[in-house]
Amino acid sequence: MSKPKVAFICVHNSCRSQMAEALGKIFASDVFESYSAGTETKPQINQDAVRLIKERYHIDMEATQQSKLLTDLPPIDIVIKMGCNVICPYLPSRYVEDWGLEDPSGKSDEEFMAIIDQIETNIKKLADNIQNNILLLTS
Length: 139
What we know:
By secondary structure, this protein is of the alpha/beta class. 36% of the residues lie in helices and 14% in strands. It has one domain: Rossmann fold (3-Layer(aba) Sandwich), CATH 3.40.50.2300. Helix 1 (16-27) links the parallel strand 1 and strand 2. Helix 1 (16-27) crosses helix 4 and helix 2 crosses helix 4 (109-131). The chain is globular. 35% of the residues are buried.
């Protein structure tokens, strides 16, 4: 059976969703395929996110990722909304979850790292739930 495709979505696809895509590739690539996208794009990934992910995980998000639109994604099995504080984008899927994360853009490194920690925890929990068939994926 192929691995489910997980899309981390928010409006601009420049910070939280990009970090989630990168961390999904680090911590769960054996369980699911990670993607990110939004309803709008930014010319570059948030530079604080790029710097902190590089410092902590030695991953250069700018080398392998860019801001993408929802229409750039393949068919998705699981949608993870990052916490839009507005109406989150809609993407057809078999399962949807909202992580409700604050946008750390423009905030301190400590606030950024707290969001990164939460994303890492959530990624590992999501992978565990998929492996143990805890998620109810509809057909």
